[in-house]
Amino acid sequence: MLLIESLFLQGLAIAIGACIGSFLNVVIYRIPAGLSILHPPSRCPHCLRQLAPRDNIPVIGWFLIKGKCRYCHTPVSWRYPAIEAFTAFLFWCVAAYFGTSLPILILCFYAAFLSWLLVLALIDIDTQTLPNSLTQSGLVIGLIYQVSLASSGASGSSNVASISNLLLFGIIGAFVGIWLLDTMRLAGRIFLQKEAMGGGDPKLAAMIGMWLGWQNILLTIMIASAIGTLVGAIAIATKSLDKQQQIPFGPFLALGAAISLFFGKALIANYLNWFGIV
Ligand SMILES: [Zn+2]
Q: What is the C-alpha separation between 226 and 252, in angstroms, rounded?
């Protein structure tokens, strides 16, 4: 791909990412509240006045209104523009990292996967739940992704055998994810005598396994457990959390999955190499 095409793709990814991020804000706020994500249009949660189109411009809109509702002057959280900017960053990462090597359709799937992970992570932080509607829809789109990947030829070969192989790859990944997390949850109950994990975590692991396959779901869980343990230890050591308080595991799984999406192949190869397996 020419440099100019690559730069165009990256710019487009940033613009689309910021707009999608604006929609993700709506999803993060409305799904746990049981509200429709399509209706009504964006409005101030305090005075319920509909936002003017110029206030809806991602990131910039928030600065235009100086972080306050135009009508009732209630402060609007900085989290909104931050999520828009972060989504733009994630989409840029996909374009910059995979842009030259994969078909556009697959890049769109990766952007969708990262969007699902971001929404689930933030809802888990906010409400300590992972809504079934999101983990299940994410799993189904993961299945469609595996079929598309095989049909696009991006996986190497393009035939019926590779479609069934990739489907199997995803389905085994989903089973490994749900089984491992269920086992960890049970172990937590037996050894720690407390609920170490929410009921939604195995479903999120199944979704990630469907997208990334069984090798990467193992890597994801390893990364999530390592970072989760570290953050938990720091939180307890700095007294920002007492021992009985729960830390949601979903955000760590999402982070592990994002790292595996970008660096999984290289990390697994290094890991096996380290043990002299390949
Ligand atoms: Zn208002």
A: 9
Boundaries of every domain in the chain:
1-101, 104-278
- Hey, what are 140's tokens? 């189904």
Phi and psi at 43, nearest 5°, equal -145, 165
How many Å lie between the centroid of ligand 1 and the Cα of residue 76?
9
Q: At 130, list the tokens.
A: 């992972």
CA of 83 to the centre of ligand 1 (A): 20
Looking at residue 40, the DSSP 8-state letter turns out to be S
Residue reference for tokens 């990630």: 208
What are the residues whose beta carbon lies below 5 Å from ligand 1 (ion)? 44, 46-47, 69, 71-72
Are 108 and 95 in contact by the 8 Å Cβ rule? The answer is: no
Single pTM value for the model: 0.90
Give the model's confidence band at 42: pLDDT under 50 very low, under 70 low, under 90 confident, else very high: confident
What is the rounded distance in angstroms from the CA atom of residue 87 to the CA atom of residue 17?
Answer: 5
Does residue 237 surpass a pLDDT of 90? no
Residue 43, sorted as left (phi over 0), alpha (psi -120 to 50) or beta, turns out to be beta
**Average pLDDT taken over every residue of the chain:** 88
pLDDT at 167: 75
CA of 67 relative to ligand 1 center, distance in Å:
11
- Centre of ligand 1 to C-alpha 51, Å, is 9
